[in-house]
């Protein structure tokens, strides 16, 4: 089934570039090219495309007004916004992500020969994400219970006896496993997490906007976040979350000690890792090491450092996003004895990173987005 895409951009030249780029992606049908937001809204009402690629600055209705209409009228069309450079553009882009935009792409300042290739690399996974989102929405409309993964199976070491029958003693290896598990559970019960970790990508600003403000002011641990986002945009994200949260939200700084009552976001373009200070403080370091999973910052990078420096002393959360960043880091954390939470499919903008982590068997709890904050607080308590 093809993905029907509508393009809205008041620049005739860039609109044509977007259209031509999208037409090179397999399974894409470009439903039209609009020069203003009002026309785009009319076309969406009539044609119901799967994806709208919309410029932020347009006559009649700008990108924000288009997104507000999409939300108000509960249109099922996914939206990717085209952002320009500058402080004002970043603010508008963050507002667009708050309103539910799937993601954003940056408008090139000059039409160079490799622009189409770069745009295609950025747009192709977003087209796939929009197609998956459409399919999940269609499934949920048919069956509201569909799309919600069952919780991970619980290992039952000793089967319950049938009614009226004596229990059969478990074999020796099962007894040994039960004893080892009991010892491990005892250790875990005595070791509360000293930090909470969150990895998130596509759909992250909206997801974080529903998770971070719900964390209680008395949360006794710092929260460290890796959100896939370019430089400067993480600044805007931190300011936005700080304005509506009981906890203080800021970008992490190199050499800073992570403190309870604070939420730290890895700056765009820098990896975030932690090391243990002389008094076992959580010392945050920023690096320019090579990207991992095509990302910098990368979730794996942070999670792996925590597993090494503070084994068994964190709670890790993986939220909406494309790809599999975080899986290797979660494996390291799980080996070190840390619990983990994944966002469920029905509430994800893109069920990529959580799905990969669940499939890899490194998730202990699967929860809807609006229950994630409570799960974190419960784990910390």
Set out the fold topology:
Layout: E1 3-8, H1 12-23, E2 28-34, H2 37-47, E3 51-55, H3 63-72, E4 78-83, H4 87-98, E5 103-106, H5 115-142, H6 172-190, E6 195-200, H7 204-211, E7 223-227, H8 233-242, E8 248-251, E9 262-265, E10 271-276, E11 282-287, H9 299-309, E12 314-318, H10 327-335, E13 340-343, H11 353-359, E14 365-367, H12 372-380
Parallel strand pairs: 1-2, 1-3, 3-4, 4-5, 6-7, 6-12, 7-9, 8-9, 12-13, 13-14
Antiparallel strand pairs: 10-11
What does this structure look like?
This protein is α/β, with parallel strands linked by helices and 381 residues long. The protein has 2 domains: 3-142, Response regulator (Rossmann fold, 3-Layer(aba) Sandwich); 190-380, Rossmann fold (3-Layer(aba) Sandwich), CATH 3.40.50.180. The protein is 38% helix and 19% strand. The protein has 12 helices and 14 strands. The strands form 3 sheets. The chain has a 7-stranded parallel beta sheet, with helices on both faces. A 5-stranded parallel beta sheet has the order 2-1-3-4-5, sandwiched between helices. α10 links the parallel β12 and β13 (340-343). α1 (12-23) packs across α5 (115-142), α2 (37-47) runs parallel beside α3 and α9 (299-309) packs parallel to α10 (327-335). The radius of gyration is 23 Å and the shape is globular. The model is unreliable at 149-168 and 181-190 (pLDDT under 50).
What are its keywords?
2 domains; alpha/beta; 381 residues; Rossmann fold; 12 helices; 5-stranded parallel β-sheet; 7-stranded parallel β-sheet
